[in-house]
Amino acid sequence: MIGACRVDLLRSGMIVAMLAVIGVGAGPAAAQRMTLDNGFRSPSGNIHCQYFDTDSVLRCDLKQIANRPLPRPRDCENEWGQAFEVFGRKNESGPICYGDTVMDDRLPVLGYGERWQRGDFVCHSERTGVSCLNSLGAGFELSRSAQTILRGEQGGKLNTGKSVGGRVD
Fold first, then answer.
1. Which contacts (CB < 8 Å, 24+ apart) does range 33-38 have?
2. pLDDT band at 152, cuts 50/70/90?
C-alpha cells in the first residue's frame, strides 16, 4: 500500500510540475514572471517588444500606425509595416514580413522616461514613442505616427513618417 501511494504522489507531482512548466494553473503572477525578462509594452499599449535570446533579436510590434509604411517587398505575402526587428551584434534592423505577433498584454508596462535592457539591447520609453538600439547603434524609433530605422555604427536614419506633437506612441 505504501508503495502504491508513493507512486501516486510521484505521478501527481510530475503532473503538477508539467502543468507549472506550461503555465496551466500557475496564476497571473507566474505568467507575468515568465514574460518580465523578455519584453515590455508602452503605456498606451500600442507598442509591444519582446527579446529572444536564442537568436539575439529584439522584435517590436505596433497595433496601429498613422503613416504609410515603407513599400512592401515583392516576396512578402504576409503582413507588413507594423513589426520591426533588430539583431544583436549586427548592424541590421528594420521592418519585417510577418504572420505572427509579439503583442502580449501580460508584458509589463515600460513607463515614460524608463529604460529596459536585455542582452545587447537597450530601449527607452517616452511620450513620443519607444526607441531601441543594439550595442552597435542599430535599431529603431517607433511611434504611431513614424517609424525610423537607425543604421548603427556608420549612422544614418531611414524615416517612414513624420512625428506630430502630443502622445504618439
1. 35/104, 35/106, 35/107, 35/108, 36/108, 37/118, 38/107, 38/118
2. confident
- Write out the DSSP string of 38-49: TEEE-TTSSEEE
The pTM of the full predicted model, rounded to 2 decimals, is 0.72
Regarding whether 124 and 83 lie in a shared domain, the answer is yes
Q: What angle do CA 69, 127, 113 make, to 5 degrees?
A: 125
Residue 18 shares a structural domain with residue 49: no
| Full residue range of the structural domain in which residue 19 is found | 1-36
Q: Mapping DSSP to helix (H, G, I), strand (E, B) and coil, where does residue 27 land?
A: helix
Answer whether residue 86 is part of any domain. yes
* 165 in a structural domain: no
Pairing state between β 83-87 and 57-62: antiparallel
Are the C-beta atoms of 120 and 51 separated by less than 8 Å?
no
The residue-averaged pLDDT of 123-152 equals: 96
Judge if 75 and 155 occupy the same domain: yes
